[in-house]
Each structure stands twice: as C-alpha cells, then as structure tokens.
Specification:
Blueprint: H1 12-22, H2 26-35, H3 41-46, H4 70-80, H5 85-92, H6 96-110, H7 115-124
Length: 133
Amino acid sequence: MTQVYDGTRPADRIATAVWRRTGGNPYALTELLAAHAGRGPEALAERPLPEHLRPPAPRPAAPPDAELTGREVEVLGCLVAGMSNKQAARALGISVRTVTVHVSNLLRKTGSASRTEAALWAVRHRVPSRPLG
C-alpha cells in the first residue's frame, strides 16, 4: 500500500483491516485499491466493499442425514473415486444421462455446489460405498 499512497505507511489498524477484508489475497487488494482510487487509505478499511469482493452469502448447511437412494449412494461412491459421469455410467451399467440426474439430486440433497464438494460430504459423513458390480 505504500507504493499507492506516496510512500507513506498506513496505520497498522488500517493495514490489518485491509488484510482481513481481502483475506491477504493480492488480487483482491488490487481490486479494492482500484474501487477506492482517489480516496485515502481509510476508505480501504471503512467504505463498503464493491459487490464483486463481498463474500458469498452462506449456503444452508448440508443436512447430515440426507436420505439417499441406493443408486445415489453408488453414484456418490463413484464421485468419491474421482470418476467422470461416463466412467460412473459404465461402472454401474446405466446411461450417462441417468448418472447426470443422480449427480444433480446428490448436489441438491447434500447442499453441495460441486461434485468435489459432494464427494467431500460423503467422506465427512462416512457414507459407505457399495462395491460395484
């Protein structure tokens, strides 16, 4: 920040506040500096964050007891194993489209935003994987 503000070092409280707001991410700091260009360093710590730098709203927690069908548990096991939809379909003897539907249901039921997050959910909740075949 000293490079932006004529070599003057901002107060420690401002540097700490900016660090917390950006999570120490230099790209977020650059965006924050650009959004508050022409204002003093206090603006970095006190003015509202631009929309694109605000943390996402928390998603509802995944239900710990999501009721999964037997086939969904099998598909989830494939996700944990790192399989693509095509690989899971081949392993389970079902169509790729059916796997896609099961993955979509799994994301909804576990409150996950991605296949990886669903796989992590399975590991954390110790979902037993059924042997394939």
